[in-house]
Automatic annotation (TrEMBL):
Binding partners and assembly: Monomer.
This protein's name: DUF2092 domain-containing protein
PROSITE patterns according to UniProt: PROKAR_LIPOPROTEIN
Signal peptide start-end: none
Pfam families: DUF2092
Keywords: Protein transport, Signal, Transport
One Gene Ontology biological process: protein transport
Entries under InterPro entries matching the protein: DUF2092, LolA/LolB/LppX
Species classification: Bacteria, Pseudomonadati, Pseudomonadota, Gammaproteobacteria, Pseudomonadales
Length: 247
């Protein structure tokens, strides 16, 4: 690269940094979160497939990336199915509006408990009573006011990208102990295309990334939310948290 080109590149980089410093909470980046929240809350049903990669540091100090695939089927207000597949073994969650069931395919055991009347109340019950956080639960919880509730201190619009054939806008956010990047689909359906989270409260700064594939039109069979125990599956009780205890 020629010297004047290097100087120009440095000038542009410095200009972007200065602009970010002057406006650490970009209104457009915050408005994008609000639009996403409103749209997600307005979906009465959806099918979702995600590919995730999570860093984990070994005792040797080497960082390894573990991958898994998650499928979500949801029909508001009271139907939910989640399947997490990692290394060929799956963990499944069923909610039919009356009961929820957790099933571990590898161990072939399941637990079944009464459930409240909506997905939102179910997520609160799982967290408060059992210390269970379902994968992608934030997709149901995110609302137009969530950005202020979680304490976002910095919000930037980075630019536009193409992800899996979709035009997406790239944003970056910072909140206590977490940096995260979000790519949102352009147009009237502001759905997440990709998410990258970096933990600042961990010296290794591990990353967790998720790529989203949405389906808003295919029909969802009611049978998807019903659980039939496989042969020789063992029912086990689900232990509640003690007062003041968190996992």
């Amino acid at each position: 690269m020629k010297p004047r080109h290097i100087a120009l590149a440095l000038l542009l980089a410095c200009g972007c940094a200065q602009a970010a410093d002057k406006n650490e909470r970009d209104p457009a980046a915050l408005a994008a979160l609000s639009s996403m929240g409103s749209y997600l809350q307005g979906l009465d049903r959806f099918s979702l497939s995600t590919r995730s990669e999570t860093d984990q540091q070994l005792d040797s100090g080497q960082t390894i990336a573990f991958q898994h695939h998650t499928q979500v089927l949801a029909v508001r207000p009271d139907k939910l199915y989640v399947n997490v597949d990692q290394a060929g073994a799956s963990r499944r969650f069923f909610y039919d509006g009356k009961h929820f069931t957790l099933y571990d395919q590898r161990l072939n055991y399941y637990t079944r408990e009464p459930a409240p009347e909506s997905i939102d109340k179910l997520l609160d019950l799982l967290d408060d009573r059992y210390g269970i956080e379902l994968p992608l639960a934030d997709l149901f919880r995110w609302s137009p006011g969530t950005a202020d509730e979680v304490g976002i201190s910095q919000a930037y619009t980075i630019g536009k990208d193409s992800i899996d054939g979709q035009r997406c806008v790239h944003y970056a956010y910072r909140q206590p102990e977490i940096d995260w990047q979000l790519w949102l689909r352009e147009g009237p359906q502001p759905l997440p295309c990709r998410l990258v989270i970096t933990r600042r409260d961990d010296a290794e700064r591990p990353r967790h990334s998720v790529s989203f594939a949405w389906d808003l039109s295919s029909p969802i069979s009611p049978d998807a939310f019903a659980f039939t125990p496989p042969a020789k599956a063992l029912p086990v009780p689900l232990v509640q948290l003690r007062a003041g205890e968190r996992p």
